Amino acid sequence: MLDVLKESLANVQIIKKGDYSYFIHPLADGIPNISAELLDEVSDEIVKRLPPCNLILSPEAMGIPIATAVSLKTSIPCSIIRKRSYGISGEVCIKQHTGYSQSMMYINGVSAGDEVVLIDDIISTGGTIRAIIPVLKTIGAQVKGVIVLFNKNHGAEKVSQDLGISIDSLVDVELVDDKIDFFMHQ
Ligand SMILES: O=P(O)(O)OC[C@H]1O[C@H](OP(=O)(O)OP(=O)(O)O)[C@H](O)[C@@H]1O
Ligand SMILES: Nc1ncnc2[nH]cnc12
Fold it and tell me: Which residues make Cβ contacts (< 8 Å) with residue 179, sequence separation at least 6?
């Protein structure tokens, strides 16, 4: 099961962003190419786990292919959290910190009463999800769940406990320096 995903994890390259270890994978980076089979398999699995919701939300950039595929398979609309401001009414600005970058992000298209599932390629430090979730609650949206492909170094468990939300993932990743291990959840 999840054989294409398993195969895609063999021989991933690891690079350094300063002191931060980073692995290169099709669905986390768009490099090497994202095969249709991989996207199909991963999105099928996420659809199986998807809590009932009326909106899929995903931060740019690498949440987009996964969230789009899930949206196509479920007919649930998808909204993208952008790194550029449109300055339109209702836009909410947040500050994202990852292990290697800081960026402003802008939420449009989420309304009070929406039942939202957040989909992303990876959780690592949790900075991205920690920035997004409280703002969704302030807007009055209900966060029905978070689903990521990769849970790096137990980021999901830490954020889940701190924010009191459920974070599901398909693969646990242990990455320290240049040593990487993957643990599939099935
Ligand atoms: O848990 P964290 O430490 O916050 O890391 C996870 C985030 O890092 C990556 O986003 P990035 O902003 O690098 O953009 P990208 O999707 O364009 O790679 C990834 O897509 C997640 O959104
Ligand atoms: N591809 C990746 N590898 C390791 N850490 C990450 N954090 C965000 N993207 C990552």
Answer: none
| CATH architecture of the domain with residue range 43-173 | 3-Layer(aba) Sandwich (3.40)
CA-based torsion, 152, 158, 161, 162: positive or negative: negative
The best mutation among 27, 152, 175 to test binding of ligand 2, ranked by most ligand atoms within 8 Å of the C-beta, falls on 152
Nearest residue CA, atom 5 of ligand 2? 22
The model's pLDDT over 70-106, given as tens digits with 9 standing for 90+, comes to 999 999 999 999 999 999 999 999 999 999 999 999 9
**Structural domain boundaries of the chain?**
43-173
* Distance in Å, CA 114 to ligand 1 centroid: 24
Cα(131)–Cα(123) distance, integer angstroms = 12
